[in-house]
Please model this.
Amino acid sequence: MDTSKFQKLLDKEHALLFEEKDFEFIFQQTFAALGSKAEYREFVKFSTKCQFERHSRSSPNTDSNPRAPPYIPSCDEYFKVIQETNYRDEDHLNRLIMMLDAPAMPYIGLGKIFRTHYRLSPNPRVLAPSIDLPHRNDPRQLLPETLLGVNTNIWHPVGHPDLKRRRERGSDETVISVSSGETDVDDRNGFVFHQLGLLEYYEGPLTTEEFVKAPLQQIVDGPWQSTGFAVVVKISGAKGDPGEIWIIFNFKPEDEDGDRHAWENETEWGQLPEHNTNCGMVKIADSLEELGHGKNINRDILSKIASNVDLVRVVKSSLHRFIIRREVGKKK
Model:
């Protein structure tokens, strides 16, 4: 990996930022300077690591050690990239992941349910597979965990006493998806999604009416609390287009060391403020366009709650035509 070349590209990106070039222009300039898709993927990893280190709070910002201000894409840019991404295209995915991994973020309001306002805190790696089986004797390309699949016809609560045994031997309720992928794309028993981030709710002193009209900085200051849900966009496995917006409860959150642990029995299901129904996943919009600061999230959609949550890895079908769940629920 040519880190000196990558560092020069980062320096050029910062120069473009000071010229107030937009995110799309910077992406195109950087991509054009690299020789291959593989090299671009390595650059994204290098860039993300450097940006987090550069803007770490532990690094003093002094005259002798100045820090360039991080580029913060606007909320509109986030929405635009999410909606325009072809999720079957690796270059498109890399661009989206780079944005979601950025060390600084704008306020991304999603709307309100009853009197509670919600926002997206970008993070493409909130969720993990329920049972992460080894990828052996499978020629299909395994895709990154920013893309996952959900089987909605499997009862899979985290606190179930059989979970440990299932994790050891693999679920007896799932089967490997067919190699062609033809019958497992966008069926009624599950779908593929891309992670967008954490769902947070406002818990500050502003009333619902005051919140909508408040200055941006007062809204950003919060306080904001995590709901324990991840925001995801449902993907058409056949076309790679984004669709419905869902929230999925994180049954295996990370601890301070980055290790994942299942909740204890007292926290087996998620609950939204002012909505006391236990659930694992909920559709909150038919498309991202329906969400935004101050908008009302459709309560009729919220009444359609799915409790089954079985998350699995995602692969490209043998002919690279589709993105599909690696394991699917047995048809009953």
Residues 241 and 302 are 23 Å apart (CA to CA).
